Amino acid sequence: MTVGDIIGEGLDIHNIAKGKEREEIILDLLNTVGLNKEHISRFPHEFSGGQRQRIGIARALAIEPEFIVCDEPISALDVSIQAQVVNLLMKLQKEKNLTYLFIAHDLSMVKYISDRVGVMYLGRMVELTTSDELYKNPLHPYTTALLSAIPIPDPEEERTKKRIPIQGEIPSNINPPTGCRFAPRCRFAKDICRQEPPKLVEVEKEHFVACHLVGKIN
User: Fold this and answer.
1) 126, CA 20 to 30 Å: which among 30, 51, 157, 206?
2) What pLDDT, on the 0 to 100 scale, is given for residue 218?
3) pTM for the full model?
C-alpha cells in the first residue's frame, strides 16, 4: 500500500470522504505531521523510522478521534527522533484537543508527556497519580525502584545516586503469584503480601496505591 492508501484506509472504511475530498484530507494530514505532498504515492520502505511514525500518526488522525492509544510509539527510534515524535504528539494534542493513552517503558519520556501516570506490574496497576506527584513522591516499592534507575545527565550526581535493585525473575503471567504479584521480588514483603492481593486505594489526594505496606515502610 502507498502512504496515501494507508492514511486513507480509515476514510474508506468509515465512508468519510471519496475522490478529490479524500485526497485533500490525506494531503492536509501529511502536512500536519511534517511530510510533503510528494510522499503520498511512496511506499513505507522508502521512509526512515521517524517518518514512518509520522505516517502512523497521520493515519490515526484521519478519522478525527478524540482518544488515541500510543503503544510504545518511540521505542524503536533514535533519541533525537524520539524527541521529534513526542513533540509532534504534544503539538497535535494542543491543536486538536486530543487525549492520549501513552504506553512506554522510557520513564523520562513518560514524565515529559504525561499529565497522569499509572505504573503496572504483571498486568496489575500498582500506582496511579499525577506525573509531578509520582516522580516527586513514589509510594509503591516497585515504582521507587523503577525511578531510581532513570539515568541523570550530571555525571557526578549519577555516580552518587542510590539505585534500588529488583531481585529475582519476573513471574509467569499464566500462573501469577497469589497475593501481591510483586511480593516475590519486594524487599519489604510480609506474609499478608503473599496471601492477599492489595486493592488500589487513594492514600493521598488523587494518589492511588495497591500495597498493604504503604505508610509502614521505613
Assistant:
1) 157
2) 53
3) 0.83
Query: Which residue in 104, 130, 105 sits closest to 116, CA to CA?
Result: 130
Q: Are 161 and 167 in contact (CB under 8 A)?
A: no
Domains of the chain: 3-105 (3.40.50.300), 116-209 (no CATH)
The partner residues of 120 in beta bridges, in order of sequence, read 125
Percent share of the chain, pLDDT over 90: 79
Environment class of residue 174 by beta-carbon count within 10 Å: exposed (0-12), middle (13-18) or buried (19+)? Answer: exposed
Model confidence pLDDT, tens digit, residues 170-194: 999 899 999 999 999 999 999 999 9
**99: which residues sit within 8 A by CB, 6+ positions away?**
66, 67, 68, 93
Residues for the chain: how many in total? Answer: 218
| Per-residue pLDDT, 193 | 96
